[in-house]
Amino acid sequence: MDYSDLPVLNASFNATATVFIVSGLICIKRGNKRAHVACMVTALTASAAFLVGYLIHQYHKGEPMTFNGQGPIRTVYYVMLWSHMFLAAVNLPLIIMTVIPAVRQRFDRHKRLARWTLPIWLYVSVTGILVYFFLYVWYPAVPTA
Length: 145
Fold this sequence. Notes:
The chain is an all-alpha fold.
């Protein structure tokens, strides 16, 4: 299997999650609970697929990648990357803690948690797409020895 295709696939999973997170928010703001649930389940599935693809890629790629950008963009990239990584680690337990009350129909608790979870999840999804573009499109990274 060629694992070099995983980064673009993973970016696509993040893009899908982003679209459905925003769509889910719009649906719930309009009172369409059924569509909200469908959107959020799709976003959750896309995010889970991303996580699996990311872990597989990390396991198989071998060498770490180095960011090729120079000057101020390097600082922008690393600030974004570190905030992305930190919030991604926070995001997974938050998502789980937000989904469980919804499944249990404790919508008051779900709504309280979702106010924190949704913007973090959205940020992680969008910055995940940006990391892909920084590393593979705008400033192609090279494997380090």
